[in-house]
Design brief:
By secondary structure, the chain is α+β, with helices and mostly antiparallel strands. It folds into two domains: 28 residues; 153 residues, Glutaredoxin (3-Layer(aba) Sandwich), CATH 3.40.30. The protein is 30% helix and 22% strand. It has seven helices and ten strands. Strands 1-10-9-4-5-6 form a six-stranded mixed β-sheet. Strand 2 and strand 3 form a beta hairpin. The radius of gyration is 20 Å and the shape is globular. The protein starts with 8 loop residues before the first helix and ends in a 25-residue tail after the last helix. 19% of the residues are buried. This is DUF899 domain-containing protein. It holds the Pfam family DUF899. InterPro entries: DUF899_thioredox (IPR010296), Thioredoxin-like_sf (IPR036249). It comes from Maritalea porphyrae.
């Protein structure tokens, strides 16, 4: 790996301080954006969505547990797939370490896939994950939240027309007021970037994500037990 520009420490620090000013401005902009996100209006959930869980069939309200907020990762896993999406697995590798901290801030976290539980549970065991992963197979949840699609029909993904497959990733957030449930936020595509710790660490390195010249951005990626 060839060096970038070689300078003395004083020159490096001057450039670092210039970059830090830009980083601080980005942080302030992000804080303002997060505040605006929290001010988004809510939409009341009227459907009785049902899910397969390790505890038996549950409704959306039960997925909250004792918390008032619910974060859902829409994990790409179709009903006839042999293993989970490698990019969703890349994100999921950090889920187990987050759930206790989420609960401490009144947040329940679930991964949800359209595949039945008996399809994806062997893969969960293979990956060594313990986070709560449930199936939306008994309901229209995945279709209504625009992460699953019928092959013969054009759908909508990231709020635009979509016809690129049957499953896509996303994150959705819900809140409850007693038994009333509300959809407060969803994000898709590059909106998921900030939730991937590995990518954010790679962004600090000289090579960055090092994905230029690949057939597609995550062509290098494999399941963690397949490198």
């Amino acid at each position: 790996m060839k060096p970038q520009k070689i300078v003395d420490r004083a020159t490096w620090e001057a450039e670092r301080l210039e970059l830090m000013a830009a980083e601080k401005e980005f942080t302030r902009q992000r804080d303002a954006l997060s505040a605006k996100r929290r001010e988004m209006p809510w939409v009341k959930i009227e459907k009785d969505y049902r899910f397969e869980t390790e505890r038996g069939e549950e409704g959306l309200l039960q997925l909250f547990g004792s918390c008032d907020q619910l974060v859902v990762y829409h994990f790409m896993y179709g009903p006839d797939w042999k293993q989970g999406c490698k990019s969703c697995s890349f994100w999921a590798d950090s889920f187990d370490h987050n759930t206790a901290h989420f609960a401490a801030r009144d947040v329940s976290f679930k991964a949800i896939s359209r595949a039945p539980m008996d399809v994806f549970m062997p893969f969960k065991k293979r990956m060594g994950w313990s986070f709560d992963w449930v199936s939306s197979a008994p309901s229209d949840f995945n279709f209504d939240f625009e992460v699953s699609f019928n092959e013969e029909e054009e759908g909508r993904y990231n709020y635009k027309p979509f016809s690129g497959g049957t499953e896509m990733p996303g994150i959705s957030v819900f809140a409850r007021d007693g038994a009333d449930i509300y959809h407060t936020y969803s994000t898709f595509s590059r909106g998921l970037d900030l939730m991937n710790a590995t990518y954010n660490y790679l962004d600090l390195t000289p090579k960055g994500r090092d994905e230029d010249g690949l057939g597609y951005a995550m062509e290098w990626l494999k399941h963690k037990d397949s490198y």
